[in-house]
Amino acid sequence: MANNAATTKLAPNQHKLSPEQQALVQRIMQFTQHHLPGSTPAIFTINGDCGTGKSVILSQLFYELQQAAHNEHSQFSGTKNYFLVNHPEVLKVYKQMAGPEQNVLKKNFLRPTSFINQLHKRHERADVVVIDEAHLLLSQPDHYNNFYGDNQLTEILKLSRVVICVFDFHQVIQTKNYWDQEMLSQIVAPYPHAEYDLTHQFRMTAGPELIHWMDAFSAGELLPLPVNTRQNYDFRIYADAESMRQAIVQRNREVGLSRIVATTGYPSTLDGGKHYIHETGGFHMPWDQYNYTQTPWAEIPETINEVGSIYTCQGFDLNYVGLILSPLLYLDPAEHRIKVDLSKKTNNEMIKRRTDVTDPAQFTRMKHQIILNSVNVLLKRGIHGAYLYAHDPELRKALLQSYHSLN
Q: InterPro entries, from UniProt (predicted)?
């Protein structure tokens, strides 16, 4: 597969939108046209799980907005529009896309903090703001990212006439970005608001029964694998991590864009050095390194020799993904449920304390949910296949028993 696979996926007109997607783009355009003249900001939210085409819709929508903004006969003529995403690797993809597309410029694409600070400094208000991966917006102050407000969506609404954003609460993977439906509903309540739920799976060729199994697994429930698990989808469970790595390397040789990823729970520090994951079968690979290039991590050929994390893989399509479940995740034999052992955490940034959550039990549930969300995100990266290995012996044994029962 070509190295610009992710860019091609998001480029407008590269893939024909489904009738539902086309209708949604037009509905949002009408919503935007209706609310642009108003003095009160309006917000349109799209809800959808991994692979339901959210980013493709936003990409096409923004392309059409920008064409209309440069058409003197359009009601959008002269509008100043921005596309925001709080994920540096995904932002690289959008900036790559901007070059060849007429009237879609690199400067239109920003991180949310950059947008907020720039418009405050210029005392300006944007017309239309499109936000991909809105579940990654900061929902508390974060001095490391130069954000000193209480909530990025609240600040963006103050600086915009119309906001269009996508949310997937199953992709919330840090406490500083924590979102749930109640929090979102409270923020949008004062504004004109419309929403739409996407349910059709576009990324994965897996059947609905296997996707349901993955959703249950990511919620801590270990169901028997469905009998049609491998129909139109290459799903495998491995007894050792090295065999899985070798299979992913082979898939990468055959079709490209296949990578090993892992959940947090192995030592890693952004200190410029390599930090290795050691697992069964002689598995020995370093975590992904900080990517200083303009090419997304997943599209760099050499990263077949690294283990991807939630930070480098969220929002990306892979052809095949090999997922290592770290020591944080284990099977409770008494309840036959997948649980999280926070004593084995290695990423403190992922579950930093929130001052607005004072109930210790509530905060513990939040942290557990965030770890399980990362499983959901990583497990669903593969378009054509997902391979799975669990560090915990009991969980690995249960997965293998279920898998072998299919044969």
A: P-loop_NTPase, SLFN_3-like_DNA/RNA_helicase
The model's pLDDT over 245-289, given as tens digits with 9 standing for 90+, comes to: 999 999 999 999 999 999 998 876 656 678 899 999 999 999 987
CB 383 within 8 A of CB 203: yes
pLDDT averaged over every residue in the chain = 90
Q: Answer yes or no: is 203 within a domain.
A: no
C-alpha to C-alpha distance for 278 and 264, rounded to whole angstroms: 13
Q: For residues 318 and 381, is the Cβ–Cβ distance under 8 A?
A: yes
68: its two tokens? 């209309």
Q: Is the pLDDT of residue 100 over 50?
A: yes
Q: Do the domain assignments include residue 48?
A: yes
Q: How many residues belong to the chain?
A: 407
Cα(398)–Cα(403) distance, integer angstroms: 9
Considering the domain architecture, whether residues 193 and 214 belong to the same structural domain is answered as: no
- Among residues 198, 219, 240, the one where a domain terminates is 198
pLDDT digits (tens, 9 = 90+) for 106-119: 999 999 999 999 99
Domain with residue 133: its CATH number is 3.40.50.300
Number of compact structural domains in the chain:
2
